[in-house]
Amino acid sequence: MSTVTEASERSASEGGGVRAVTRAFEVLQCFTAARPVLSLAEIVRESGLPRTTVLRLIDTLVGERMLRHAADGRITVGARLIRLAAFAEAAWAVPDETADRMTRLAQETGETASLYARSGLRRVAVGQSPSPYSLRHVVQVGDEMPLVLGAASTLLVAASGPDAADHVLAALPAAERSAVDVDSFRAAVHDARRDGYAVSHGAREPGNSGVAVIVREGDERRPAVVLGLGGPTARFTEERVPVFLDALTAAAADIRRTGLPAALD
C-alpha cells in the first residue's frame, strides 16, 4: 500500500522467482467466495495465463496446501488458506466502535457508508455499513475499484501527496490510461486536495453518486484512508450533499479517535 508505482512493481517482477510468485497470486485470485471450486479451463481463462504455466502453478500450490484437488477433478482452496484467512480477518477487522459509528452514519444519512484505503492503483473497501433502503449502493468488504473513478478514489489520490496524481497516471497500464480524461482527473484531484472532500455523480456507474472526506492522509509508511457515502444519484441532490458532508466530517473525526484496522497502522 505504498506509493511505489505499479509500473515499478511490474518491472521488479520480471525476475523469474518474483514473477512466479506474482503468477501464483493471479491463480489464487481466480477463486472467490461465490466460486470456491474451479476447473482448469476456468482458471486459465480467468488468470489469462498459459495452460502449461497454470498446471505448474497448481501443482506447486497443491503441494503447499494452498489449493487441493476436489473429488470431481476440479480445483478448490486448500487448508493452509484457513490460517491465512483468519490472520487477515483479524488484521483487517474494523474496531467495534468504528463499526458502530459507521452504522450510525448510514442510519443518519440513509446511504451506504464505506471506509476505503489506497492499495497501489486500487481503492479497497475495508469497512462497510449498508443503507437502510432497498435501493442502495452495494459494496462488499474487500472489493477493489480503480483509483481513477469516483469520489473516494479521487480523494485517496489527493490525500496521497501533491504528486500522487502524476504518479498514478504514469503507472496506469496503457489501456486504462487511454480511458482517462487526464486533465479532468488532475483537476478533480487538485480540487479534492484543496477542499478536503470529493463528490462524484455517475463516475463509476450511471445513476450512482458518492461523497467522501479524508480520515487520514497517506505517506511512505501508511496508506491514505477516506470515509464515503454512496447511493442513487436521485438522493444526492444539491440540498442533501452538504448535509452528507457535515455528517461525514463528524463521523471521520470520531473514527480517528476510535481507530482503523490494525493492518493500516
Question: Short summary of the structure?
Answer:
By secondary structure, this protein is α+β, with helices and mostly antiparallel strands. It has helices at residues 6-12, 16-28, 40-47, 51-63, 80-92, 96-109, 151-158, 164-171, 174-178, 182-195, 240-258; strands at residues 37-38, 67-69, 75-77, 112-119, 122-129, 144-146, 197-201, 208-216, 225-232. A hairpin with a 2-residue loop joins strand 4 and strand 5.
How would you characterize the overall build of this protein?
The protein is an alpha+beta fold. 46% of the residues lie in helices and 18% in strands. It has 11 helices and 9 strands. It has helices at 6-12, 16-28, 40-47, 51-63, 80-92, 96-109, 151-158, 164-171, 174-178, 182-195, 240-258; strands at 37-38, 67-69, 75-77, 112-119, 122-129, 144-146, 197-201, 208-216, 225-232. The chain has a 6-stranded antiparallel sheet. Strands 1-3-2 form a 3-stranded antiparallel sheet. A hairpin with a 5-residue loop joins strand 2 and strand 3. Helix 2 (16-28) packs across helix 4. The longest helix is centred in the C-terminal third of the chain and has 19 residues, at 240-258. The N and C termini lie close together (11 Å). Mean pLDDT is 91; it is low at 1-16.
